[in-house]
Design a protein that fits this description.
The protein is an alpha/beta fold. Among the domains are: 165 residues, 3-Layer(aba) Sandwich (Rossmann fold), CATH 3.40.50; 64 residues, no CATH class. It contains nine helices and ten strands. The longest helix is centred in the last third of the chain and has 41 residues. The radius of gyration is 26 Å and the shape is flat. About 13% of the residues have low confidence.
Length: 350
């Protein structure tokens, strides 16, 4: 059955990005998933942004909006309340006009660490650090919306995110990526390959596939020795609420899966990219702490980090030290600027 037709607008300020890239993504969605999406592209100048917010956007009839910014903008200020600069007024006008159906796309993002991060992540870690503090989690994890980033064009994970975004039955649910399994090419058999003999080695259950390259076997063995047997693909299991999914150590914001650190673990479960980034951002100064992930009953997980008293004391002292250092630097710069201004004023007078 065809879905109801949707009207959307694509916005960009000062033509820093090509809106055609997003339009291409939406056209592909139409063709592949039997959707009806009607979009218009609107560029606007920064000087006219306030006027557009007050006069144009309230008159537009739209089911959703996509606001596209460039990764190299001097400051990715999209939703900072008291920044005095940025796009906060424009973004809030879009939220009001669409009922919170606003996607953010960061184009020109060349800051992905590697191909694996590109394939598995909606947004690069670099970009997420830039904007995460401006948004509640529900605008990042699909419960209400997404922030996507790519360099020149979208990827498969972005199409799945849009399917989630446009599905009214998924409202309030976190997005879970289901990558398509990669097809493994069949091994080439040369004409000189001999038929198996009776005395050839027979693989017992659990042995490694002899067709796997030696390097891959070595890497897998090393990973198993270090972390234990870990499922290569995170299973999408809806655990009962309160189930302890993982209890282990957290070192400088990184979750340890080493056997000596893991206390409890549902081994088919792994922390999501969102969880990992949050922990890295908030706890990167803490050398060691305990972290526990617990199922919340709707396919997601809540996370609690615990430190002993001595760790808390060191963490808070370090935080106070950093705060004092920042304040001292700010005061020093102010005093320096004041003295310099007075010096130039005295020279001008005398």
């Amino acid at each position: 059955m065809e879905r109801e037709s949707m009207k959307g607008y694509l916005f960009n300020c000062d033509k820093t990005c090509e809106l055609e890239k997003v339009e291409t993504l939406l056209i592909e969605m139409e063709e592949k998933h039997n959707m009806k999406i009607d979009v218009e592209k609107l560029y606007f100048g920064l000087r006219s942004m306030s006027e557009i917010c007050d006069t144009k956007i309230p008159l537009l009839e739209m089911s959703f909006a996509v606001f596209v910014v460039h990764a190299n903008e001097s400051r990715l200020s999209i939703n900072e309340e008291n920044a005095g600069i940025g796009y906060a007024k424009f973004y809030k006008a879009l939220l009001k006009a669409t009922g919170d159906k606003v996607l953010i796309v960061i184009a020109g993002d060349t800051n992905y660490l590697d191909e694996n991060e590109e394939e598995q992540s909606l947004i690069s870690r670099w970009a997420r650090r830039k904007v995460a503090s401006q948004f509640d989690d529900e605008y990042l994890d699909g419960r209400k919306s997404f922030i996507l980033s790519w360099n020149k064009e979208h990827r498969a994970i972005h199409q799945q995110a849009l399917l989630h975004f446009f599905d009214p039955n998924k409202k309030g649910q976190k997005f879970q990526y289901r990558p398509k399994p990669k097809l493994t090419p069949e091994p080439q058999v040369t004409s000189s390959a001999a038929a198996p003999r009776e005395d050839d080695m027979v693989l017992e259950e659990g042995d490694l596939d002899p067709l796997v390259e030696n390097d891959e076997v070595n890497i897998e063995n090393e990973r198993r020795n270090r972390y234990g047997a870990i499922s290569s693909v995170t299973a999408l299991v809806n655990y009962p609420k309160g189930t302890v999914l993982l209890k282990t150590r957290l070192r400088y914001g990184e979750v340890s899966l080493e056997g000596k650190d893991v206390v409890e673990w549902q081994e088919e479960w792994q922390p999501s990219e969102m969880n990992a980034l949050d922990l890295e951002e908030k706890w990167n100064l803490v050398p060691d702490a305990e972290v526990q992930f617990t199922a919340d009953g709707d396919g997601g997980a809540s996370c609690v980090v615990k430190m002993n008293r001595w760790q808390k004391f060191k963490y808070y002292m370090w935080s106070i030290f950093n705060c004092m250092k920042t304040c001292i630097c700010a005061v020093g710069m102010f005093v320096y600027s004041l003295i310099r201004s007075c010096y130039h004023w005295i020279r001008a007078k005398f």
